[in-house]
Every structure is written in structure tokens, then in C-alpha cells.
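Journal club side-thread
Mid-discussion, someone asked how the predicted structure for our own chain would compare to the paper's figures. Pasting it here so we can look after the session.
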Amino acid sequence: MINRFILSLAALSSAASVAMAADSVTLKNGNSLSGKLVNSSASGVLELKHPHSQDTLKVKETSIDRIVFDTRGHKNSTLTQSIQLLNGDHFPCTITELNDQIVSFKSDSVGAHTVPRNKVSHIKFNTKANKILYRGPGDDLSAWTTSSEDWKLKDGKLSVNRRSEAGKSIRDLTQNYIFEFKTTWEEATPHLRFCFSSNQLKADKKSDFYYIDLNSHGITIYRSNKGKYTTLAQVLGNDSFYAQSNLNVAIHVDRKHQKMALYLNGKLIKTLNDTKVAPKGNYFIVKNLQRTGINTQISNIKISSWSGKVTDDIKSKTEALAKHDLITDLSGSVMTGQIIGITRNEGKANLNFKAPFAKKDSSIPETAIDILEFKTAAKATDKNNAIYHLNLVSGGQVSYNSSQIIDGKLTVDHPILGKVSLPKASLSSAITIPKPIDPKSIAPFED
């Protein structure tokens, strides 16, 4: 590891954060640095220009746990399509060509590429750029209302080691939204509750809200309405969820149609329906239910506006995708068939497909399509063995194993796209993907 630090890490980090808004680098040993990432070598040594150091500081990429890039002045993507690759990476783009063999696209962050069609999971059409309403937990605890002084904020993580709660309201929360967070643990599986869409900061028997419970027994989503609790979805705990010392949770909240979709570590796990009118509140409250002395950490909280909706159930969709491509239009109707390609005429595009037993091919205007999902039967499994996740300002994600910064661009080795150069201004953060841990080493939950 290269550690040419002229000043102490603590002093550098403190001085830089006061002097300038900049890139922030957190090392695996817990130390943090702020400055401007200006370059890196092919051997994986990053150079950080610090305002209080004449020489650039050099840090090995392998010693870095997380990078948060300076995103001032960068605007979200205006592209209205999004592609998701088989390894889970996704980003806004424009589809330029599509047939039974390949998919070609252009992206303002990832660039132009052509990939085999069996490396693509699905394509979203007619997307509006999701506006990030909140990203946190922020720079200090002043943004949160806490029930005790036990809550701490360090390295971008909210943490507490006794039963307590913290909450905040989200200004201009849209009717439909996406709610994401990450929980990390060291000693025991998490035992926490995250309430959302609450009409009061105090999510109690007088309130109307949704909440998700995480504990060693599993993950459950409930609806609480004035003291009456309804179970909306339950996922039993298993090693695949808790095999690592962290869990990424995302919930697509479709209040308009009274539906939700639960994602764990980027995978769609369950869709659910609420028979009652959805709660209209804009409060989010996290409650730590873990026993005293066991630390709970919450990070990567992001709440975004969402123009989409939750459709269909997973089981029927999985069965259909084993034999067919699926097209879901903007009304929610699902059509099965074989995608042939896209034709363009005078700026307008149509998706051509062959329906089962149909004598003629069908054509659907691109403007009427919500999502196109490709048949899964012929796909080879694509395990994502990447070391890092690169998060884009536009909301996308790119996996990689090594990188190099040259002339304001980050070039990475992508498992599907190969060499990809991304403008540094389009990057939000880079995070080390934790290695799986032995599930037997996780202490069982105790009341």
C-alpha cells in the first residue's frame, strides 16, 4: 500500500472539507481524505490533489473503500430510455439498433456500445429522469430528528447501538417514488424498522404509513393505519440475503395504483398490493430495534421521484420469460412474442415482434411501450464478480475491477462492455463490493 501522506490523515480531511467541496476518499482502515482526484496510473495508483499539500497524495486503488465524487453543476440525464445488462448494471441511453442478435445504444455517460442480446436483461422506454429528492444521511445530524443522543454520523453512515429512532420529512415527495437504503452489520443480523409515507414524524398508532421490518427471521412489509396492521409481503430469511455483512434494499412505491415492488441487492424479490388507498405522508422514520450494545448502521439513503408503476407478478412473468420476450405497454398490458427489431421512419420508431401463432408480424409505436424484457431461457448465467460498483449521477450503476483516471475521465474494465470511459463529472460514487462472509459466523438474533 502506498501511503505518502505529508500531513496526518485526520488533519488533511478536516482542512480539506472546510477549504473546498471536493472528491472524498475513504480508505479501508477508516481514514478519510478530501481533495481533487486528478489522475491515476495503469497500475491502480490514484493521485489526489490536496489544497494543503504541494505534492499530490498517492493512494492505491486496492486500499480504498469508497469514493464520493464532487457533483456540483452536473445535470441529470435527459435520455428517456434505460438499459439493464444481465449482470445488473443499468444506465440511461438511446437504443439505436435492435435485432435477434445484438442491441446497440448510446449513453451520455457510458458512451456507444453494441452488445449481444443475450447479455441484456431488459430495456425501459419512455422514462423520465428520476429526480433525486434526498440523498444522505447528509453532512450532519441536523437534517434528522432523533429520539435520543445515541445516534452518530460517521463516514456517511447513521449508526446507533441502542433502541432509538430518527426521522425526517421529504419536501415535494412525489406520489410515486423509489426509496433505497443500505444496512451494514458486524456482529448480528439487522433488527430495524424503516417507516415510509407516514403522515406524522411519530409513526405510532395514530399514524398512517408503510414500514419494512428486517430481522434474522426475514423481511416483512406492513401497512399500519391508525393502529391496525396488515401484512403486505413477507420474505423468509435465508443465507443468500444475509451471506454478506450488508444488504441493499430498494422499494418502488406506486401509491397511485396501491402497489409496491421490493428489491434486495438489486434483484426484484416480490411485488405486492395494498387494498386500501395508499398513505399520503412524506415522513421517513428509521427505528433501531436491536438489543443494546449491538451497532446498527444505515447508509446510502436515496429517495427519488418515479414516473413508473408496478405491474404484473413475478411468478407469471418468470414463467413467460422462459419461452417468450415480454412487452408491457404504458397501460400495463403485457404481450408475449419474439422481438424482431426496431424500425425508424421520419424520427418515429416502432418495435416489431412476432406474436405466437400470428400470421403477420406486429408493430408497436415506441412511445406506447413501458418495458421490453428479453427471454431468459437462452441466456448464460452472468455472475457479477466485479470488485467495485460505480454509481452515476443519472442514477445508473457500472461494475468494474480496475480503473484509471486520465484527462477528467474514468476508464474502467467492464465485464460486458469492455473498456468504458466515463466523464468524471457524471460520477456520483464508487463503492467496494464487500466479499461474502461465512453465514455461520453471523451471531443469531436474540430478543
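Post-session note: The domain at 132-305 is CATH 2.60.120.560 (Jelly Rolls).
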